[in-house]
Design brief:
This protein has helices spanning about 35-40, 65-70, 85-90, 115-125, 140-145, 165-180; strands spanning about 5-10, 30-35, 55-60, 75, 130-135, 150-155. It is α/β, with parallel strands linked by helices and about 180 residues long. The protein has a four-stranded parallel beta sheet with strand order 4-1-5-6, sandwiched between helices. The protein has a two-stranded antiparallel ribbon with strand order 2-3. It is globular. The structure holds magnesium ion (MG). The site of magnesium ion has 6 residues, from loops.
Length: about 180
């Protein structure tokens, strides 16, 4: 049996449309208040007598079943890292997923790639993959097309809108065309 392609999933942007305008939130989303440890640490750890403001995260519970119905093996590819399994997955009805652990984040790549791009190619190790993220640029897409040794789909998701039905359809069509499971 052929392995399924990997699906690298970013949280903020695709699952959490954090740029959607207040009052114009796409339908289906529920606002959750979260205070993950990494967020607290990033904002001073709540020391010095001030309280860290919790994060508001918008999530659509329908996204979990829709992701699981795709012919992929999902993997978290987010700065939430393992906290995605703790804070995000339960609201979507997803089981704990494997996690890409970053050696470094938010650095400037010499070729202008996103800081995740090379790490994801390395993780996928020649296996077909798709990647959904709000920060993908044509540099990443071109680099992956020229350099990655298997099929891959880099799909930019607008952070104003999050994942939409058309994106799920595109992922499915791509997988069926380029990474069919025998
Ligand atoms: Mg993002």
């Amino acid at each position: 049996m052929t392995e399924r392609p990997l699906l690298f999933i970013d949280v903020d942007g695709p699952l959490n449309p954090f740029r959607s305008a207040p009052g114009r939130r796409p339908s289906g989303y529920i606002a959750h208040t979260m205070l993950p440890d990494s967020w607290t640490a990033m904002h001073g750890g709540g020391t010095g007598g001030f309280q860290v403001r919790p994060l508001t995260v918008l999530l659509d519970p329908a996204h979990g079943p829709k992701l699981q119905a795709l012919p992929f093996e999902p993997v978290w590819a987010t700065t939430w890292e393992h906290e995605a399994n703790e804070w995000i997955a339960p609201h979507l009805g997803l089981p704990p997923l494997p996690v890409v652990e970053w050696e470094r984040t938010h650095f400037t790549d010499p070729a202008g790639l996103h800081w995740k791009t090379r790490a994801l190619a390395e993780y996928a190790a020649g296996r077909p993959f798709a990647w959904i993220d709000d920060e993908i640029t044509p540099h990443d897409t071109d680099w992956a097309r020229e350099r990655y040794p298997a099929h891959c789909l880099l799909l930019r998701i607008a952070p104003e809108l999050g994942l939409r039905d058309g994106d799920f359809a595109e992922l499915r069509e791509w997988a069926e065309a380029h990474a069919p499971v025998a």
